[in-house]
Each structure stands twice: as structure tokens, then as C-alpha cells.
Amino acid sequence: MKKLILLLIAMMLGLMAFAQAPLSFNYQAVVRDLTGSVLVDKEVSFRVSILSGSTSGTLVYREIHSEESTNEFGLVELEIGKGSASMGAFSDITWGDNTYFLKIEIDPEGGSTWEEIGTTQLVSVPYALYARSSDFECINNRPTTLEGYGITDAVSQASVDVLKQKIDKISWILEDPFKRGLVKDCEGNDYKTIMIGTQTWMAENLKTTKYDDETLIPNVIDDATWNSLTSDAYCWFNNDIGNKDIYGALYNWHAVKTGKLCPEGWHVPSDSEWKQLEMALGMTHEQADAFSWRGTDQGTQMKTTSGWNDNGNGTNSSGFSGLPSGYRGNSNFVYIGYYGFWWTSSEGSEGKALVRGLNYSGTTVSRGSGNAEYGNSVRCLRD
């Protein structure tokens, strides 16, 4: 039997129809063979188990998804909670009482000879499912005072504010998980997320104008001022805020190294963490450690299916959704539509930091250094 590997790219795309029972969530994966080649239009079967407490914990629920077909990109989508249950009931899982782990097994031939692919902790699912199963009423009309929460002793208003923030997060996920994505920055910008391998990435470029502590990031428009900066700054491509929603903001590396750009629980990925992403898409260790343009088709997997000039679109089979957002160089804005560059949190040689790049005319991924004053895009990675 031909052995397959499963590249996990999106553990939870969104929580499904809460008004219906049982509750469920979407799960996507790209199926590849051991050479890294995507398997197109292939029927495979999955066994999905939910374990309590640890990766080897108690089995609380199991279901089968038989003869699921991959699409033209090797992508398969499961609606977990809607498979054929073989143990337990999905609706009986008490998400708020424990930590849960998702175990995936696959039969490459669409039968029932299971090969374990991996076990991953569920993080986002319990938030919303637990909120659904709890006694939250009028979540959008919550109290705003100590007395409203039944607190009459010496507890600070700050404690209530923390509670309100947690309820806000649950409310936001329940409101519209497909539209909202799974993470929000301090300005209220929403970002879709994607799981690639064992990492959870933002699937959009950062566009905040504030640090996570809500202090403003300086917006520098003048080229001469930008080029001479030794402090943090951001801009929009061509200083046009109309580029915000599609391409996000461009930040210099001084802003990146503050460590405050990403939302709480997220960070700018290091060079090593970018390598982990690339190797999850099939790049070898040797290729990942090299500089310049490396790999085989990892760039194609990471580029969006539209937006790249001169027929340079990718397949976006990874879900990374890399866009050609260009960058701000020494004296001007260049390469929008043709190149995208993203900072790492890792320093390079003096005055520089390591970056990743995608381009319209190639299938690979660049690893190089950029001057600290350059304006590049930023993606955040879950802690």
C-alpha cells in the first residue's frame, strides 16, 4: 500500500452553524506522498479522535470520514462533528472542563487500515464551543460595573475589564467566525489564520498602526526622513491607505524588534520558524539553511491564486496567501504586484535583518537580508 503523508494546513477554519446540532468545525489538510507531491483527486479515509488531557489521554470521541476526495490542489476538507461516530457523542464533549487534543489517522486507499498522522492540541475550538454550551445570556449586553458582575468586595475594576475582554473574545468568535477569522489586533483589525504543519500563522499581512500595548507606531511619509530613521515606523505602499486592506502595512525592522507588533499570544516569526514552515511544505533542511532563492515549489504553494503580475500566481495550496505587496527601499516604493517580502525577528549582519521573499516569476522562496530602514510586510505566528 502506498504510504502517504498529511500536511496539516488549517485545523479550524470556523465553527459551523451553532443553531444546529451536533456542533462541528471545519478542518483542512493537503495530502501528499512521501516525495512531497500533492495527490490530486484521490479518495482517502480519515479516522478522527478527540482525546482528553494529553496526546495520549482518554478517548472521548471518535468518528470516521470514509472516501473523502482531494481536490485539484490535493486539499481535503472535513467537518469534524459530522462524521460517522464510532465512539461517544460530539455534542457531549464538555469543552470548558479540560484540554483536548485532535488525533488524525488516514487510510490512503479509502478503507480502514489506519496510519497515524499526528495529534494536535485544540486551542480555538473550546473557546467557542464552551461558550455555546455554557449559560452565557445576552453576551452583548454584559454588565459594565463591579456590581453588575455580582462583585461587591475589594476587587479592582481592572479585574472586571479583564473579564470583559475574555467575553468580548468569545462574542467575537461566535458572531461570524468565517468573516472574522481567528485573531484580532488591538485596533480591531481581523485576520484569518491557517495551520501549516504544527504552526498557526496569520493568513494576512499585519495592518495595525498601534503596538499591542496600544501606543501609536509613527507613520513616516517623507522618503528622506524614512531613510535616515534609527527608530520604529510604518507606512502604506505609496503612502496610500487604500492599500491597507489588501496588502497591509509596511514596517521597518526597528518596529519589528520592539516585540510589540503582533497581538497578544502572537509574535513575529524567527528565521528558524520560517524554516519550519518551509520544510512543512517539502523543503529540505539543506535547502532551508541556504540563502537566495531555495526549494522547489514552496513559493507556488504560498502565493495567492490571483494578484501576481505576468501570470505569476500560485496555487496557495498551503493557505499562506502570500501577496505581492512590494516594499519601501532607500528612496521609493517598488515591486508591488511582482514581489512580496516579510521580516523575520532574526538579526542579520550589522544594520540588517533576515527576510523572506516571493516573486512573480519563480516557484521558490528567498532567504536574505534587508536593511533595517526598509519597509517590509509582517506576518504573525501563534506563540
Task: Write a brief structural summary.
With 383 residues, the protein is of the alpha+beta class. 17% of the residues lie in helices and 31% in strands. The protein has 9 helices and 22 strands.
Keywords:
383 residues; alpha+beta; Immunoglobulin-like; 3 domains; five-stranded antiparallel sheet; four-stranded antiparallel sheet
What is the average per-residue confidence, as pLDDT, rounded to a whole number? 80
Q: Which strand-content bin applies to the residues?
A: 25-35%
**Rounded to an integer, what's the Rg over CA atoms?**
22 Å
- What's the quaternary structure here? single chain
| N- to C-terminal distance | 38 Å
Number of helices: 9
Describe this structure in words.
Helices cover 17% and strands 31% of the residues. It has helices spanning 124-133, 157-175, 177-180, 223-227, 244-247, 253-256, 271-280, 285-289, 298-302, and strands spanning 4-10, 25-33, 43-52, 58-69, 75-80, 84-87, 100-107, 115-121, 183-184, 190-191, 193-196, 199-202, 234-235, 250-251, 266-267, 292-294, 325-328, 333-336, 339-347, 352-359, 365-371, 381-382. It has nine helices and 22 strands. It has three domains: 4-132, Immunoglobulin-like; 137-180, no CATH class; 203-382, no CATH class. Strands 6-4-3-7-8 form a five-stranded antiparallel β-sheet, with no helix packed on it. A four-stranded antiparallel β-sheet has the order 16-21-20-19. With 383 residues, it is α+β, with helices and mostly antiparallel strands. Residues 1-22, 124-146, 149-155 and 166-180 have low confidence and may be disordered. The longest helix has 19 residues, at 157-175.
